[in-house]
């Protein structure tokens, strides 16, 4: 495969695997094509008017660059690998053409398995993608059945969900495998019915431990099935998956998506930091929130579950309403919290990211080591399919605060990617203690701090004065000691 090349904003590189044209020629051809394509709207991409109206009701009027590049290829039936940064609209880049195909070619009544499978790494993403498909279908007023499978479903629930069968299945690979191995889904039925397979957040699927499930499942994917692979980064895992399921795919690479180094923060996110001792982080975050120095809604990341509860209790004492989101909460509570936060019922959400889950390596599906175990509750059961960094589309988050610095630069990029999504603006504030300086320096150099581009520069947070912090110190310390 010819290597993808980094290009400036909006310049998607489209290349077919195995194509051996000199890179320069590909780029030149593409530049001309790009200029013509640049302004194409959904209508010009050949999108069904019902879908255009549905998107418009969601205030989506013009396609993002990845949508402009991917939709026509997917409509033509090509296998596609789409790599584009966080928040660039990859979900509709595959959902819109997928639905259009199903509208115009209604699945056969004889099908015994779903026509389209969308596989994602976490339950949260399952729910998010399921809601997006459902809302488009409802707005289009077409009759298509969509189900999501979750690993908490019993065999009889799975059987009920798959009866019919549905036209679109949204699931983690583990649930599909569970249905296959228990005979609820039949390999022969998949071979006869499956027309489109989507692997979303593909770069995460393997790190969540789904390799065996995916291998077992893809053995039944028929050759004629169109395969789409969506990812924010490129990695050896993405290459592995590509080899496993795709046939001579078109590779769409949006600018600067290569490896960790190129995995960019959207340009519309301003990044700041505050340097303080670990102990002073509480009073600093209190000042940020209490004095309203950061714009709402705010997503706060901590590295441990205990720290997130400590913060929540601390905020409560100051009348700041927040909620926590982590792997030990039951799935229903997590969905409920996400829905309430997205609906604007509260402005501050304290989350533990899934880097903790993946850092430990492989997922044992329901109870692997999602981060540091709490000293207070050592036996809590953690959900290995939990994930609230990658892919989750928190609505209208303006500010991301790193109360604790993430452990990796990739973790930083994906946390910050929860704001500034699509065409919105956002900001991030990282609280950095001296122990975290090393990772901070690594992040700065990886983002290219010195190459003169403002957007990549993490600046000192300008709005918080020493006096403001000191005015809150006494109360903060008293309250923290009490709780
Ligand atoms: N064409 C568009 N115009 C405006 N907003 C859009 C458009 N397409 C998608 N969006 C919105 O942009 C947000 C981000 O989209 P999406 O979740 O698909 O991004 P993503 O590329 O999958 O990000 P990640 O890699 O983090 O998963 C969503 O709220 C979505 O509704």
Automatic annotation (TrEMBL):
InterPro entries: DEAD/DEAH_box_helicase_dom (IPR011545), DEAD_box_RNA_helicase (IPR050079), Helicase_ATP-bd (IPR014001), Helicase_C-like (IPR001650), P-loop_NTPase (IPR027417), RNA_helicase_DEAD_Q_motif (IPR014014). Keywords: ATP-binding, Helicase, Hydrolase, Nucleotide-binding, RNA-binding. Its EC number is 3.6.4.13. It catalyses: ATP + H2O = ADP + phosphate + H(+). Belongs to the DEAD box helicase family. DDX56/DBP9 subfamily. Residues 268-469 form the Helicase C-terminal domain. It comes from the Eukaryota. Pfam families: DEAD, Helicase_C. A motif (Q motif) lies at residues 40-68. Residues 18-33 have a biased composition (Basic and acidic residues). Coiled coil: none annotated. This is RNA helicase. Residues 40-68 form the DEAD-box RNA helicase Q domain. Residues 370-379 have a biased composition (Basic residues). Residues 1-42, 357-379 are annotated as: Disordered. One of its GO terms (cellular component) is cytosol. PROSITE patterns: HELICASE_ATP_BIND_1 (PS51192), HELICASE_CTER (PS51194), Q_MOTIF (PS51195). Residues 71-252 form the Helicase ATP-binding domain. It is an enzyme of class 3 (hydrolase). GO terms for molecular function: ATP binding; hydrolase activity; RNA binding; RNA helicase activity. The keyword NAD does not apply. It comes from Olea europaea subsp. europaea.
């Amino acid at each position: 495969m010819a290597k993808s090349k980094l290009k400036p904003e909006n310049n998607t590189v489209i290349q077919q695997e195995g194509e051996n044209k000199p890179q320069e020629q590909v780029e030149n051809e593409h530049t001309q094509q790009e200029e013509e394509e640049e302004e194409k709207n959904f209508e010009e991409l050949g999108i069904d008017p019902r879908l255009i109206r549905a998107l418009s009701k969601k205030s989506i009027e013009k396609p993002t660059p990845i949508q402009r590049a991917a939709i026509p290829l997917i409509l033509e039936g090509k296998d596609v690998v789409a790599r584009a940064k966080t928040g660039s609209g990859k979900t509709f880049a595959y959902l819109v053409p997928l639905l259009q195909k199903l509208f115009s070619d209604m699945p056969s009544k004889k099908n015994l398995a779903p026509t389209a499978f969308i596989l994602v790494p976490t339950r949260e993403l399952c729910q998010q993608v399921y809601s997006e498909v459902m809302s488009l279908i409802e707005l289009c007023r077409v009759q298509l059945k969509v189900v999501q499978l979750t690993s908490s479903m019993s065999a009889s629930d799975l059987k009920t969900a798959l009866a019919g069968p549905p036209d679109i299945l949204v699931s983690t690979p583990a649930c599909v495998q569970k249905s296959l191995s228990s005979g609820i889904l039949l390999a022969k039925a998949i071979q006869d019915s499956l027309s489109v397979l989507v692997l979303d957040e593909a770069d995460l699927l393997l790190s969540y431990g789904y390799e065996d499930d995916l291998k077992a499942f893809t053995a039944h994917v028929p050759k004629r099935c169109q395969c789409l692979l969506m990812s924010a980064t490129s990695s050896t895992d993405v290459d592995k998956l590509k080899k496993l399921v795709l046939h001579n795919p078109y590779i769409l690479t949006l600018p600067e998506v290569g490896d960790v180094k190129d995995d960019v923060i959207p340009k519309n996110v301003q990044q700041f930091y505050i340097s303080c001792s670990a102990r002073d982080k509480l009073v600093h975050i209190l000042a940020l929130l209490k004095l309203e120095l950061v714009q709402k809604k705010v997503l706060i990341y901590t590295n441990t579950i205990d720290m997130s509860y400590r913060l929540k209790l601390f905020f409560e004492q100051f009348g700041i309403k927040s909620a926590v989101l982590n792997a030990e909460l039951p799935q229903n509570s997590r969905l409920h919290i996400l829905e309430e936060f997205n609906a604007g019922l509260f402005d501050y959400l304290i989350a533990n990211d899934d880097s903790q889950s993946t850092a430990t390596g492989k997922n044992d599906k329901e109870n692997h080591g999602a981060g540091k175990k709490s000293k207070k509750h050592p036996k809590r059961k953690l959900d290995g399919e939990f994930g609230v960094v990658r892919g989750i589309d928190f609505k209208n988050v303006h500010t991301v605060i790193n109360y604790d610095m993430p452990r990796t630069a990739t973790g930083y990029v994906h946390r910050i990617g929860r704001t500034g999504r699509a065409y919105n603006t956002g900001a991030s504030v990282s609280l950095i203690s001296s122990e975290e300086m090393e990772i901070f320096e690594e992040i700065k150099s990886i983002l290219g701090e010195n190459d003169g581009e403002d957007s990549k520069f993490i600046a000192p947070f300008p709005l918080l004065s020493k006096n403001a912090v000191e005015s809150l110190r006494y109360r903060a310390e008293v309250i923290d000691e009490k709780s």
